[in-house]
Amino acid sequence: MRTAWALAVWLTGCAGPISRIDPAATHADAGTGNVHPPAKGALVIHTETYLFLDGDVARYPHTGYWIHDAEGQKLRFVPNHIGTSDQDPTPVTIAPGRYLIRLESIDASPRVFWVTVEKNRLTEIEASDIPAKGDR
Length: 136
Prior knowledge:
This protein has 1 helix and 9 strands, in the order H-E-E-E-E-E-E-E-E-E. It is mostly beta strands and 136 residues long. It has a domain at 41-135: Immunoglobulin-like. It is elongated. The N and C termini lie far apart (81 Å). The model has no long low-confidence stretch (mean pLDDT 82).
């Protein structure tokens, strides 16, 4: 019983509303001040497209690709289009670094290549410029 009473007193002391916050103390500023999001880069890969018939309308969404880290581990798959009506490649926000990219391919073996993403920069790749494995 004594423990329950002590717990009730303790909870009552903690449950009160805060009536004043010290504005002179250091607080995060989510607007434009001292909160800085981690530095990221952006990656856009213009991959091959494929024909998708949407009724009478021909659409050409981009094929997807895998992003692997520098050790070859899969990080994520990028479908590279949003829905079947999207005909633009998908921008990806990613930490700066060096990555292996493995492109999906419709009728050939997948292409694999390195890409370096720099902080606060857009890295844009035209996949048709990447040689196939046997074309080097």
